UniProtKB/TrEMBL annotation, chain A:
PROSITE patterns: ABC_TRANSPORTER_1, ABC_TRANSPORTER_2. Gene3D superfamilies: 2.40.50.100, P-loop containing nucleotide triphosphate hydrolases. Pfam families: ABC_tran, OB_MalK. GO terms for cellular component: ATP-binding cassette (ABC) transporter complex, substrate-binding subunit-containing. Keywords: ATP-binding, Cell membrane, Membrane, Nucleotide-binding, Translocase, Transport. The gene is ugpC. Residues 4-237 form the ABC transporter domain. GO terms for biological process: carbohydrate transport. GO terms for molecular function: ABC-type transporter activity; ATP binding; ATP hydrolysis activity. This is sn-glycerol-3-phosphate ABC transporter ATP-binding protein UgpC.
From TrEMBL, chain B:
Keywords: Cell membrane, Membrane, Transmembrane, Transmembrane helix, Transport. It is found in: Cell membrane. It comes from Cellulomonas humilata. This is Carbohydrate ABC transporter permease. Pfam families: BPD_transp_1.
Length: 418, 282
C-alpha cells in the first residue's frame, strides 16, 4: 500500500490535444479518492497515466515515494478494474482471478494460489462460480471477478475506471457498497474514476472534480456540496442540480426572477461594483411556505411562482418552474450547461419539497428560502463569491478525522473476525 | 421461439430436402460414376450396374494408367496449397493486426486494394502472367503458382482477419499488462487464445481457395513438375483411346474432395465460431 503523488501532470496527444493540463494531487496511503467530471474532462486519461497505460507528457508521478513515470505497468504493482471488466474469456473464473499470480513465476505454489483465489472468491461470494467461464456470468458477477483479480494481487493501490457504468441501477447500488466495504476492510489506496456524482459523493473520502483537463477542486464530498469554489463544481455536484438564477443588484436588494432578496451586510462587500451576478440555490433549500414554521418564516424570503410540472417520488416532490433568464448571464449559463453534458433545454427552477406538500402543477405555489444558504457567483469568472475558506477547511479536517476513524474501526472489526 | 405448426414443419422439411438434393446431387453422381466400369458408363443408369474399384486402381495402384499423373499432381496440390496458405495467413495476420489496431494513412487504400484484387477476374490476368512467367522462368514451377494463389487468398484473409481482430477486446492486453505481464506475455496469454480461432478459420478458407483453383493451375503449368490436381484431371486418358477417362476423373475428384470434407467436419465448430464470433456480444 502506498501514497500516490501527482505533480503538474500533463498529457498531450500526438495531434496536439491537451487532455490533462497540469494536475497536482496528493493521495494519502489508504485513501479513497474519486476523479469525477463530465465526459471528456481527462479523468480516465489521468487514471491511465497513473497505471502506466498512457505516457506522461510532463510532470512527476510518485507511487510510494518512488518516481514511476518511466516504469512499465507491470512494475508499478497496481491493480485496475476496467469499465467492461476485461476478463479473459478463454479462462475460467478461477484462472481469471489467478492470472496475476501465475504471471509472477515461481513466487507462489499451486496451493498458495488456490488459497488466495479462494479467499478472494469468498470475500466476493464467487465460490460457486469458480469453474465457469466469464461469458456465462451476469454483469454483477463479472464485475466481482474483475475485483477479485485486483484483490489477489495485494497491489499498492486499486484503480477503478467507471466500474459500475455497465450495470443496472439496482446492482450499481449494491456493488457500490461492496466496493466501499472492500476498500475499508483492505485499507488499500484507491483511485476511482466516474462521471456519476452519486458514486463520487458516496464512495469518496475526497473527490477531485475535473473540467477540460483542469482540476477544479479537491475536497470532501461535504466540502464540495457546501463550499464549491466555482459555478462548475456547484452545478456538477448535487442531484437534482443546483438552480442558477440571474440576480440583478440595485442598492441593497437583489432581484431574482421571482423574488426580491435583501443583501446582507456580510454579502454586500463581495458584490461591490457588480450589477448582475449568478445566484445558486439548491432545490432542497426551497420549502413550501405553508409548511414553514412562523418563527422561521421571517428570516427568509417568501415568494409566489407558477408551477409547471410536478414529480412525486414518494419521499420527495420535485416542482418545476420555468423562467426567462437574463440575457447578460445566458451565455455563461449555456456554456456551463454544455460543460455539464446538458442539452441546453429551457431554463427552469427545480424545487425539492417534502412529499406531504399540497403544491400541484398548474398552481401558483408559495415558496420560501433562506438567503443565507444561497451562493453567489461572478458571471464572468464563475468564481463563488460566497466561498468560505475557513468553513471549507474545517469540513475537510473533520472528514479526514472521520476517514481515519472509519479505517481503524474497519481494521479492528477485521482483526476481531480473524 | 414459437412452436412451428405441423404444416410449417412439413413445408420446412420439404424445402430442406429439396436444397439438400440440389446441393448434393452432383457429388453423389460423381461418387456413383467413380464406381462404374468404363464400359458401363453409357448405360444411362444412375448407380453402377456392377460396383468396381477399377477407377481407383487406375489412379492409385502402381501401373495404373493415370497413376503417375495423379500422384504427382496430388503432391503438387498439397505442397502448393499448404505453402500458399501459410504465407497468406502470416502476411494477412500482420496486415489485419495493423488495420485493426493502428491508425495510419492509407489504411482504407490497403483494404480497398485488397478488395479490388479479389474481385478482379482471374481469367483476365492469366494470359499476361503466362507470358511474364515464361520470360522470367517461373512457368511450370511451384513458386509460379504460389504467387498467383496469394493474390486470391491474401485479400480474403486480410478482410476476414481484420473483421475478426476488430472484435477482440484489446483492453485485455492492457489488463494483462497491469496484472503484471510483459508486452509479449500479454499478447501471448490474452490475445493469442482469442485470435487463434479466427486465424484458423482464415487458414482453412485460404487453403480451400488454393486447393480448388483450376484456371491458374492449367494455364501456368505444363508438366507434372507443378501441375495441381484440378488441372491434371483434364489430362487423364482412358486405358485405351477408345475408353473415356470419366471414371478415373470421378475417382480422382472424390479423392481430392475427401481432405476438404474431413477438415470441415473436424473443425466445423471452430469455423462456425470463427465466422460468427463477435456477432453476438457476450
Amino acid at each position: 500500500m502506498a501514497a500516490i503523488t501527482l505533480k503538474d501532470i500533463v498529457k498531450q496527444y500526438g495531434d496536439g490535444f491537451l487532455a490533462v493540463k497540469g494536475v497536482s494531487l496528493d493521495i494519502a496511503d489508504g485513501e479513497f479518492v474519486i476523479l469525477v467530471g463530465p465526459s471528456g474532462c481527462g479523468k480516465s486519461t489521468l487514471l491511465r497515466m497513473i497505471v502506466g497505460l498512457e505516457d506522461i507528457t510532463a510532470g512527476d508521478l510518485h507511487i510510494g515515494g518512488k518516481r514511476v513515470n518511466d516504469k512499465a505497468p507491470r512494475d508499478r504493482h497496481l491493480a485496475m478494474v476496467f469499465q467492461n471488466y476485461a476478463l479473459y474469456p478463454h479462462l475460467t473464473v478461477f484462472e481469471n482471478i489467478a492470472f496475476p499470480l501465475r504471471l509472477q513465476k515461481g513466487q507462489f505454489t499451486d496451493a498458495q494460489i488456490k488459497e488466495k483465489v479462494e479467499f478472494a472468491a469468498k470475500t466476493l461470494e464467487l465460490q460457486d462460480h469458480l469453474d465457469r467461464k466469464p461469458a456465462n456470468l451476469s454483469g454483477g458477477q463479472r464485475q466481482r471477478v474483475a475485483m477479485g483479480r485486483a484483490i489477489v494481487r495485494e497491489a499498492e493501490a486499486f484503480l477503478f475506471d467507471e466500474p459500475l457504468s455497465n450495470l443496472d441501477a439496482k446492482l450499481r447500488g449494491q456493488m457500490r457498497t461492496e466496493i466501499a466495504r472492500m476498500q475499508r476492510r483492505l485499507g488499500t489506496t484507491t483511485v476511482y474514476v466516474t462521471h456519476d456524482q452519486t458514486e463520487a459523493m458516496t464512495l469518496g473520502d475526497r473527490v477531485a472534480v475535473l473540467r477540460k483537463g483542469e482540476l477544479q477542486q479537491v475536497a470532501s464530498p461535504r466540502g464540495l456540496y457546501e463550499q464549491p469554489v466555482n459555478l462548475f463544481v456547484a452545478g456538477f455536484i448535487g442531484s437534482p442540480p443546483m438552480n442558477f438564477l440571474p440576480g440583478e443588484i440595485s442598492g441593497s436588494t437583489m432581484t431574482l426572477p421571482f423574488a426580491e432578496v435583501p443583501i446582507s451586510a456580510e454579502l454586500a462587500p463581495k458584490l461591490q461594483g457588480k450589477e448582475i451576478v449568478i445566484v445558486g440555490i439548491r432545490p432542497e433549500h426551497f420549502e413550501d411556505a405553508a409548511l414553514v414554521e412562523d418563527a422561521k418564516k421571517g428570516a427568509g424570503v417568501t415568494f409566489s411562482a407558477p408551477v409547471d410540472v410536478t414529480e412525486w417520488l414518494g419521499s420527495e416532490l420535485y416542482a418545476y418552474i420555468p423562467f426567462d433568464t437574463n440575457p447578460d448571464v445566458a451565455t455563461t449559463l449555456e456554456e456551463l450547461d454544455r460543460d455539464l453534458d446538458g442539452e441546453g433545454l429551457r431554463t427552469q427552477l427545480i424545487v425539492a419539497l417534502p412529499s406531504e406538500t399540497k403544491i400541484r402543477d398548474g398552481v401558483d405555489a408559495d415558496l420560501w428560502f433562506d438567503p443565507a444558504r444561497m451562493m453567489v457567483f461572478d458571471p464572468e469568472s464563475g468564481e463563488n463569491l460566497t466561498w468560505n475558506g475557513t468553513a471549507a477547511e474545517a469540513l475537510d479536517r473533520e472528514n479526514e478525522a472521520d476517514r481515519k476513524a472509519s479505517l481503524e474501526r474497519a481494521q479492528a472489526r477485521e482483526k476481531a473476525r480473524a | 421461439m414459437k412452436q412451428l405448426s405441423t404444416r410449417a414443419k412439413i413445408a420446412w422439411a420439404l424445402i430442406t430436402i429439396f436444397v439438400l438434393a440440389y446441393a448434393l446431387f452432383p457429388i453423389v453422381s460423381i461418387f456413383a460414376t467413380s464406381f462404374k466400369l468404363p464400359s458401363q458408363l453409357n448405360l444411362g443408369l444412375f448407380w453402377p450396374k456392377t460396383w468396381t474399384t477399377v477407377n481407383y486402381e487406375e489412379i492409385l495402384a502402381p501401373g495404373g494408367s493415370a497413376q503417375t499423373l495423379f500422384l504427382s499432381s496430388l503432391r503438387n496440390s498439397i505442397g502448393i496449397s499448404l505453402i500458399a496458405t501459410a504465407i497468406a495467413v502470416v502476411l494477412a495476420t500482420l496486415a489485419a493486426y495493423a488495420i485493426a489496431r493502428l491508425d495510419f494513412p492509407g489504411k482504407r487504400m490497403v483494404l480497398l486494394t485488397a478488395l479490388g484484387v479479389s474481385i478482379f477476374p482471374v481469367i483476365s490476368i492469366v494470359t499476361p502472367l503466362f507470358n511474364l512467367w515464361r520470360n522470367i522462368g517461373l512457368y511450370d514451377t511451384w513458386l509460379g503458382l504460389i504467387i498467383p494463389y496469394l493474390s486470391l487468398t491474401l485479400p480474403i484473409s486480410i478482410w476476414t482477419l481484420a473483421a475478426f481482430f476488430r472484435q477482440i477486446p484489446w483492453e485485455l492486453e492492457q489488463a494483462a499488462q497491469v496484472d503484471g505481464a510483459t508486452t509479449w506475455q500479454a499478447f501471448r496469454k490474452a490475445i493469442v487464445p482469442l485470435a487463434a480461432p479466427g486465424v484458423f478459420t482464415t487458414a482453412l478458407i485460404a487453403f480451400f481457395i488454393a486447393w480448388n483453383d483450376f484456371v491458374y493451375g492449367i494455364s501456368l503449368t505444363s508438366t507434372d513438375r507443378a501441375r495441381p490436381v484440378p488441372a491434371a484431371l483434364a489430362f487423364f486418358t482412358g486405358a485405351s483411346q477408345f475408353e473415356e477417362p470419366t471414371g478415373s476423373i470421378s475417382a480422382a475428384a472424390i479423392i481430392v474432395t475427401i481432405p476438404v470434407v474431413i477438415l470441415v467436419l473436424l473443425f466445423q465448430r471452430q469455423i462456425v465460431s470463427g465466422l460468427t464470433q463477435g456477432a453476438v456480444k457476450g
